[in-house]
Amino acid sequence: MRMMLSMALLTVLAACDDTTGAASGTSADLLPGDDALHSDDDTTSTDDPTALRDDVSCSTGSATQALSALDLAEPGPFEVASQNETFYDTSRPSTDDGLFAEDGRKLATTVWYPSQKEWWELDDTVDGQNLPVVVYSHGFSSSKDEGAFLGEHLASHGYIVVAPTFPLTNMMAPGGPDMIDTVNQPGDVSFLIDQFLAKSALSSDKFHGAVDASRIAVAGTSMGGMTTSLVTYHRTLHDPRVKAAVTLAGPGSMFGPSFYDHRAVPLLALHGDLDAIVDYDYNAVRTLERAAPYTTLVTIEDGSHTAFAPIPLEDLVLPLMGSLVAPEGSHPDNPDRLGCGVIADSMPDDASFLDLIGGAADGLVTADDPMPCDMAYLSEPALEPDAQREIAAIATLAFLESYFAGAQSRRESACLFVESRLGDLGGVTVESSP
Questions:
Q1: pTM of this prediction?
Q2: Which residues pair with 170 in a beta bridge?
Q3: How far is the C-alpha of 219 from the C-alpha of 135, rounded, in Å?
Q4: Handedness of CA 300, 301, 306, 312 (dihedral sign)
Q5: 79 φ, ψ to 5°?
Q6: Domains of the chain (ranges, CATH numbers)
Q7: What CA–CA distance (Å, rounded) separates 310 from 147?
Q8: Alpha-carbon gap, residue 158 to 32, rounded angstroms
Q9: Mind listing the pLDDT tens digit for each residue in 342-399?
Q10: Which tens digits make up the pLDDT trace of 89-145?
Q11: Residue 215 is inside which H or E element, if any?
């Protein structure tokens, strides 16, 4: 299944491509793999931790023409294939008490990749060598299937996308999903990076030579966004191989400025301003401020939380499930009515589980978010989910291309699109950390 563009967004994209984007300035050409961009050295703290941070903005260089919004929105030139594979990390039990320890941490995984196959061949091969890799982390009470819209789109543009179902936060976890296990998920992401680097080094594997170890990114939605932030920036949980990060409706209120000052990695944060589950002001706005100068924040007007995390047959399921579990008074055209109904019985009683992630020494601060599922948000109609995901796919691809594209000219044109054209999409605001 390829991403299908809504007619409304197609009209907007066509209008965006009618004019040429002008460069809004240039920045240092720091590319993935540069020591200055990916140093793990601690930064001496000051009253303003952001003052000592390297600028990791993408570079527009000499570009005068931004990438086309329509080209970013449409499937790329590659055929897309997927395969399912289950990995077991036997070095770590699924829980501290050893539950499921006989198998370790089971990660049922889907990988989407550019594919080529001749008519006489029984199996396909990966189309390309040294390709960038994105590890996608799903949200709470969800699964790997949530990442299909991004996985398929990015793979069509030459990326390998790896999406696991985490063992204890997925919707079918024994005893119900357990948010506390989020702290173990950065280790799962690192384990999968290990696996795909090993597959790339194995001459008999389909992915032999396919992975570029210098172009590894992570992405995730909601609590998967928290997993993404942890594996990118946390002092002890981070993976130094991660060179770019994308969060969709990711929590950020618990991460203080010093959480980010230890690794210089660019971050794209996408968030809807009607998010009823992870409050926009307390999370997205604070991430923009605290992660300076690493962050680009893309705000989607009337965007919800749940629209980033599609479920199978959602056009059929949303009305049915919404009528059964949605909070009374919620608007029928707000996907968060279903999200709130699903998580209502699974949320921890308090935020004490965050203590497992660390404390002040790790840059953690007290999370003071309002309780999720406020009717002030749920009572309003939200942006149509397909349109929200289309915006997310365009923004994510442009951001990744601005750092990972093979040709410098394409990196610069992608950067120009993010800086000067992405905000031309209807209902989209783009802000970069000062």
A1: 0.86
A2: 142
A3: 6
A4: negative
A5: -70, 150
A6: 7-432 (3.40.50.1820)
A7: 8
A8: 17
A9: 776 666 655 667 788 999 999 999 888 888 888 999 999 999 999 999 999 999 999 9
A10: 998 876 644 444 456 899 999 999 999 987 677 788 899 999 999 999 999 988 999
A11: strand 211-221
d(CA 31, CA 58): 8
Cβ neighbours of residue 31 under 8 Å, at least 6 residues apart?
Answer: 37, 403, 411
Distance CA 401, CA 93 (A): 37
Give the number of residues written for the chain. 434
Q: Are 94 and 167 in contact (CB under 8 A)?
A: yes
H runs (alpha helix) in 218-271: 223-233, 257-260
Cβ neighbour number for residue 412 with a 10 Å cutoff: 25
Is there a contact between 347 and 179 (Cβ–Cβ < 8 Å)? Answer: yes
| Pairwise CA distance, residues 119 & 117, whole Å | 6
Q: What type of residue is 213? A: A
Q: What is the SS3 assignment for 395?
A: helix
Radius of gyration of the chain from its Cα atoms, rounded to whole angstroms = 20
- Residue from 41, 56, 87, 396 nearest 250 by CA: 396
- Which pair of structure tokens corresponds to residue 233? 């920036």
d(CA 107, CA 362): 27
Q: Where are the alpha helices (DSSP H) in 172-313?
A: 185-201, 223-233, 257-260, 286-290
- Give the pLDDT score at 397: 98
What kind and span of H or E run contains 342?
helix 336-343
Q: How far is CA 230 from the centre of its chain?
A: 12
Q: Which of 214, 34, 55 lies closest to 132 in space, CA to CA?
A: 214
